[in-house]
Amino acid sequence: MRRSAEKPLSSIEAFDEKQFYLDEFRNHTLALCISIAELVHESDYVQLAAIVRELLTNGSRVLVLVGMPDPQGAEQVLRRVQRRLGPFVAQPRPRFLPLPAAAFAQPESAAALLKTVWDALRRRPLFVGLIAGADKAEATTFAQQIAARLRVYKLVLVEGEGGVVGSDGKPLSFMDEATLSALLRAGEAEWAGLAGRRLTLQAIRAALLGGVGSVNLCTLSGTARELFTYEGSGTLFTLADYCNVQKLGIDDFEEVERLIARGQREGLLKLRSADEIAGLLLHAYGATIGAHHLAGICALTTEPYRADAAGEITGLYTITRFKGEGVGGRLLARLLADARAAGLAYVFACTTEERAQAFFERHGFRRVGHDQVPAAKWVGYDPRRKTQVAAYRLDLANDRRTVPATLGPSNPRTLGPSAR
Question: Is the pTM of this model over 0.90?
Answer without folding.
Answer: no
